[in-house]
């Protein structure tokens, strides 16, 4: 339907997404996986038309990333991957940060970091470090938190992003302006290694 009947789908998109979200929460793994696959298809075929539903759908998918069932986790990751590739990047970033950055569950934070790393590649470092309000500041604060996260996987992705972004010419100025002082001190060595590598020292 998302591919061939957008005229039928769009007027009731919000209600349809709410119904799918409820099915994602279904205790039967087959039902939940099918619902997540449906969200993935909707991201791919509706793309920016799904922007208004990104925050709500991302939240339930991130939550599923903490499940013990491997198929559930994979389903959530596949759907989130489609979201990152298909919807408006700034909307996606907001959804990831709101839904997972400060979550108590380490698996959810790790999933958030993984998809934020991919989103950074999609958006490009120049855009992320443009200094635009509610973009550069939120991005750098999030990266600084993930790079010192107690969870190894979240920290790994956070530091990958940091290494990539630190090579941009605008990084130092924006980092000093927006990153929290505590995290700046903790990550000084990581950034120094990037700078040495850039100078081939």
TrEMBL record:
Alphabetical list of InterPro entries matching this protein: ARM-like (IPR011989), ARM-type_fold (IPR016024), CLASP_N_dom (IPR024395)
Q: Which residues form the CLASP N-terminal domain?
A: 9-165
What is one term from the GO cellular component aspect held by the record? cytoplasmic microtubule
Q: Which GO terms describe its molecular function?
A: microtubule binding
What GO terms in the biological process aspect are recorded for it? microtubule cytoskeleton organization
- A Pfam family cross-referenced in the UniProt record is CLASP_N
The molecule here is called TOG array regulator of axonemal microtubules protein 1-like
Species in which this protein is naturally found: Salvelinus namaycush
Its lineage reads: Eukaryota, Metazoa, Chordata, Craniata, Vertebrata
């Amino acid at each position: 339907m998302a591919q061939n009947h957008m005229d039928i789908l769009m007027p009731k998109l919000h209600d349809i997404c709410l119904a799918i979200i409820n099915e994602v929460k279904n205790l039967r793994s087959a039902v939940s996986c099918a619902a997540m696959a449906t969200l993935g298809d909707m991201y791919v075929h509706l793309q920016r038309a799904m922007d208004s539903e990104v925050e709500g759908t991302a939240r339930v998918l991130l939550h599923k990333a903490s499940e013990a069932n491997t198929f559930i986790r994979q389903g959530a990751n596949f759907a989130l991957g489609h979201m990152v590739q298909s919807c408006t990047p700034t909307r996606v970033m907001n959804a990831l940060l709101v839904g997972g950055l400060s979550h108590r569950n380490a698996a959810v934070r790790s999933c958030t970091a993984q998809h934020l790393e991919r989103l950074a590649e999609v958006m490009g470092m120049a855009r992320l470090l443009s200094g635009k309000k509610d973009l550069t500041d939120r991005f750098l604060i999030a990266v600084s938190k993930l790079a010192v996260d107690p969870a190894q996987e979240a920290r790994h992705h956070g530091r990958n992003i940091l290494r990539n972004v630190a090579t941009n010419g605008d990084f130092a100025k924006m980092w000093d302006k927006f990153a929290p002082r505590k995290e700046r001190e903790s990550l000084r060595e990581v950034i120094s290694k990037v700078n040495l590598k850039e100078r081939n020292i």
